[in-house]
């Protein structure tokens, strides 16, 4: 983590709360982020930031085309995310190559958005990212919220977004062990299966606990 990263270092009372929101695709991260936005949190969507770093003419888009071929471009020269997704979600090595291109450009933008939210006096910022832990963004968060759901609900939500069964299964398979890998890093875990009001009540309760409870002080260096 670079010296410019806004690392928590033990959240002092009154300082903006930083929540990392992560979990598999289709489990409700964006829904929970929307509920937190209603409460005044600023939401930073890592996927949206990733879209912003690959405009036509960008170095990142050129690198993506060099790695995956001109078939990932639309007729207008922009990135065809659906075509790219069919490649990377069927091949773990291809996904790693894509992340190696995109993540170095995404991370500084997210850190800048966190700083902007704090400067603007927001009570909290929510960083929504599947790669929250792997990308090191969990290190600048006070809490990590892991969102899960029943596989049947996950598939039905992806279908409602227009994903084909083949695409859905490919994406789910790519993230098959994600919950197990992320659980040790999670401050709180939310299961959004079933009725939405129950999940919302759980989230609102967690928000109240996180935003109102003063965090513990940073550890004291025993050598001092």
* Helix run count: 9
Within the largest sheet, what's the order of strands? 2-3-1-4-5
Low-confidence stretches: 1-9
Q: State the total count of DSSP E strands.
A: 5
Can you tell me the CATH superfamily of the domain at 17-53 and 104-212?
P-loop containing nucleotide triphosphate hydrolases
Major sheet summary line: 5 strands, parallel
Label the structural class: alpha/beta
What's the architecture of the domain at 17-53 and 104-212, going by CATH? 3-Layer(aba) Sandwich
Distance between the termini: 25 Å
The top level CATH class name of the domain at 17-53 and 104-212:
Alpha Beta
Provide mean pLDDT, rounded: 87
Measured on Cα atoms, how large is the radius of gyration?
18 Å
Global shape: globular
Helix content: 40-55%
Please state roughly what percent of the residues sit in beta strands, choosing from under 5%, 5-15%, 15-25%, 25-35%, 35-45% or over 45%: 5-15%
